[in-house]
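Write out the 3D structure for:
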Amino acid sequence: MNNDIFPCLWHNEDAKEAAEFYCKVFNGTVTADTPVVMNIELFGQKLMLLNGGPQFERNASISFMVLCETEDEVQNYWNQLSNGGIVLMDLGEYPWSKKYGWVRDQFGTTWQLYLGEKQGEQKLIPTLMYIHENNGRAMEAMELYTEIFPNSKIGGVLKYGESVGDENHEVPENVQHAHFEIDGYSFFCMDNSYDHKFDFNEGISIVIMTDDQEETDHLWNSLTQNGGRESMCGWLKDPFGVSWQIVPKKLIQLMNDSDQEKAHKVVQAMMKMQKIVIKDLELAYMS
């Protein structure tokens, strides 16, 4: 499983509380505990929680599918996540699963609990919902992502088809559910024509840890072209509005240097950047 790719959840001062809650629910562990960043591991997968402030709220445009192996497992997670949360789809039997439910937990992150087949080793799968002007573009998004990243592929794609389409005002050719991988990391996605009151935002972003400047440049340039947008400190939005953080491993190494003054200079340099430029970080470190 690729732990150089992982989701980041934007929090307003409750990242630690949320991190401890998720570790309790899913039997995970806290791997980094700082005032700004909490890293946790759930089912061997990395998840980052960032105390970024009140600007962004997480919403259901990106939810987390948890592939469960028994009905008891689904029920156990459901009981904890729905406590103080909001039920989006009742826990029950559906055509696609004997036991399934969709819930927004007390911290505002949404989970789809699903009794069904695992996709390889990965148990927790970020699920992207293409809505509003992106509705009907899930296939295009998968094609873009799998073209940009190495070791990528589109897996099973289920379209709405005539019967479901009519009933729910969905377009028959649109994607009801699909699986794709980027560099060995699994995602699900879907088109949805409902007029939700939310859309992709910085509340949930996808972090990519890069090995060098070449990889950083390639991902940055590929994801920002054709309607994407550059933001600050390694953040960008792709043409669909999904937020990504392209983070060279060297940045983390320099920021965590034991020499506090040098580490601080690196952070100051990074704060002024859009795309992260490794050689400029190194210059700041040496200055």
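The mean pLDDT is 95.
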